[in-house]
Specification:
This protein is an alpha/beta fold and about 250 residues long. Helix content is about 60%, strand content about 15%. It is built from twelve helices and seven strands. It has a five-stranded parallel sheet, sandwiched between helices. The chain has a two-stranded antiparallel sheet with strand order 6-7. The longest helix has about 40 residues. The radius of gyration is 30 Å and the shape is elongated.
């Protein structure tokens, strides 16, 4: 039970001095949680025995037990504040990506899809492959069947089979994968159209591609020297592409 609740439950048993002590503690929780019995008594203009009796009236065996409970609450409140700030920042990042995609004109991309005999999807890593699978799944709802290239071996075999009538999406984070760069150069040499989807446009894959889609990513500090890279924008892009492409097809029937 929280200390506020203990005070409420024992309020009728508290005297004026107890209530004065609680008034200071409730308004200066951090300072109180990090004070010694002597320091807290001085800050409350009370004696050490008065502060001790206050803690005991709330059901604590002594001041140390009371201080431990108060400190645990203060630290929990601080963690909640940090979590809320992180979640607010995460929400802002996702909304920023969503607004960015909604404002873009993907018509050149849609024309390439529409003109293609077959569309292939290739991801350079685990996340990118998941995005490719998601794009395949989502576009099936619009009767568009895309082929997912599962690995490097398939990519090497596919390169020779692709024609100028096909289209390949290459999903990458930084566009610096050796395999993806080699693939992009081979596609360019064979005049096979492809679209680069990366978080950086200043890379070989993006420069060689017929069209490039920039996906903004950001990192969130999560404490302990760690950070979390928000990559949700890649999946948001898939949904926006599908919905906008559906509108494009309706408008060009």
């Amino acid at each position: 039970m929280k200390i506020d609740e203990l005070v409420r439950d024992h309020y009728v048993d508290l005297g004026d001095m107890d209530r004065d002590i609680w008034r200071y503690i409730s308004m200066h929780r951090y300072e109180a949680a990090n004070s010694t019995l002597v320091d807290l008594a001085a800050k409350c203009n009370a004696s050490k025995s008065a502060v001790l009796r206050f803690a005991q009236r709330l059901g604590f065996r002594g001041f140390s037990e009371f201080k431990y409970a108060l400190k645990a609450e203060v630290e929990a409140d601080a963690r909640d504040m940090v979590d809320a700030a992180v979640l607010d920042r995460y929400t802002a990042i996702v909304l920023k990506s969503l607004k960015d995609f909604l404002s873009r004109d993907f018509t050149p991309v849609f024309r390439l899809i529409e003109q293609s005999s077959k569309v292939f999807l290739y991801g350079t890593g685990t996340l990118q492959r998941a995005v490719a699978q998601e794009m395949r799944r989502v576009f099936l709802a619009g009767d568009e069947y895309f082929y997912v290239v599962e690995g490097v071996d398939e990519t090497a075999a596919l390169t020779g089979a692709l024609t100028q009538d096909d289209l390949l999406f290459v999903f990458s984070l930084k566009g610096q994968s050796d395999n993806a760069t080699t693939l992009a150069r081979n596609l360019k040499a064979r005049n096979v159209p492809f679209i680069a989807v990366t978080s950086y446009l200043d890379n070989d894959i993006a420069h060689l591609a017929d069209e490039s889609i920039l996906v903004g990513t950001e990192s969130l500090p999560i404490g302990g020297g760690h950070s979390y890279e928000v990559l949700d924008a890649y999946f948001l892009l898939v949904s926006i592409l599908f919905l906008k492409y559906s509108e494009y097809k309706r408008a060009h029937r």
